[in-house]
Fold these 3 entries.
Entry 1:
Amino acid sequence: MNRESPAVVRCFWARNPVSIRYHDEEWGVPVHDDRTLFEFLILEGAQAGLSWDTILHKRENYRAAFDHFDAERIANYDRRGMNTLLRDPGIVRNRLKIASTVRNAKAFLQIQKEFGSFDRYIWQFVSGKTIVNAWGLPKQVPARTPESDAMSKDLKKRGFNFVGSTICYAFMQAVGMVNDHAVSCFRYSQVGRK
């Protein structure tokens, strides 16, 4: 029987089985797959005004409802498709957020066409490599940075919605553009090695 030591230290927000699994396996690990990057951008936008735990609990429903974040398919959703999504209890049923997902899919495809990949575009905001921070306390972690400000401004210019600087910074944390694990967290050095 594999029992975890009670001495394992995690970031303060990883408190329940879903958030612990996400923290231990995904959060802060550098992502370079376009579809996964798109998924996180959409989920971070859906989270606006809600808790991240709410979105994590609905994540599989989002994948099913939004064709596993296939941007080409989402870009072609019509009003009827969006109305169907508004009736889906498995996702956040917010008309603006659903319409934003379709709009963002179209903008995402334009970026892929222009840059060759969304990965190449988005990682330019951190010069292609993870910014490694060294926070000891949760209150030290910023809600936004000059990099997230620049990302937000450029994404908005390109037609994206629900991409304010705070949302962009949360996205950067999720996809490993920044390592914001607490220095005391067991994942801090692990993520740094990936």
Note: Residues 181 and 188 are 5 Å apart (CA to CA).
Entry 2:
Amino acid sequence: MGFEQLIEKVRQAEVALEAKERQTGADWRQVKSSWRAMWTPGRIVIAGLVSGFIVGRAEPFKKAAGGGTLQLISALSSLFAGGSAQAAASEASDAKQAAETVERKTDGMPPPANDDTPEPPPPYEVPETFRGSGHL
């Protein structure tokens, strides 16, 4: 097999790979749209009830409750909720500043100097249940 034939084989393989990539992308878009269309509000409620029943009946979760695992999960969820709330507050403050800038421009006032520095995030508070328990 000559060098030119090898190059032609590589080109054919590249064309076939690109065709497969396009087909995979189209298939994935179809799966995503079908998946989203399938989840109606009634089905979401039914899925929540079934999963809640299954989780409530699971023995490992009942055993984990005594070891502080649920307390750890609760503390971590509040940590993530606090972080997302802080991000939302930051976005709201940016939107407020943008609205004030637009308002000043419409009133003919010069925009303020940009000397606002973001405040540091508040320190994370350790829940009382973990203090002195040796879990940290």
Note: The chain has a mean pLDDT of 77.
Entry 3:
Amino acid sequence: MSVDRVVNSVDARTLHGGDISSGCWVIRDRADVDVVVKSGERADLIVIDTAGAECQRVGIKALSGATLNVVHVITESYDHKLDISMSEHVEVSVTQLVVAGAKVNTKAHLQGAGARFVLNGSFVHTDDERGDVTVDVLHEVGDCVSRTAYRGVASGKAQGRFSGLVYIAQDAQRTDAEQLSRNVTLGDAVIHTAPQMEIYADDVRCSHGATVGQMDAEAIMYMRQRGISAADAKRLQIQGFVADTILHAPIAGCGDAMMELLMDKLDRL
């Protein structure tokens, strides 16, 4: 699998850290990068694997009124850290695709009133891969919104884990937060999911949920009755389950390229 297809799907400039303004930027082959999105700017950022690194860390600071779209693609089995700090009236939208047994930690600090953070992610583990995805959303001030939705797939003898935390500080009144983890296992695979909320404010609107289940047997039978093999039926069902996350990627052109990466991975189911 190659992440080059994701990069080639957009007209982007290479980023090695520092301030960014409007346009599309790509971070690659960098193990440790700090980025500042200028006040009032609108920018797109693609973060991809760093060759030969044991850990990739990307720190993002979005200043007042900035809008940032992030696509984060993970194909290598090492540690990945994405740390985002958001000032007032900042909007950050992240799409994350994990197709390796990696350890992925995403942390969002909502530090300014009116900040909005959205993360849609999916992981797919096959064979005997071990993966661990953590998403921490920290509401440190009031009047902020967060939405986290993660979908997981594991097959063979793979093991996946999703750990989610929504923290709402005592002064973070009028917080609106949602967190959802949906997962599907095949064969002997196992997925553990542990979403949680720590709420210290009393004027909030919060919800969270998690599911782990098998594929829809009736849907597979329906497809087999129409001449589709069992393997292809499973593949199509998983494709549809994950595609909803990928195809709504906030950076134009990245969705189709990530779907190709997903299809490569599904060939191993």
Note: The chain has four helices and 17 strands.
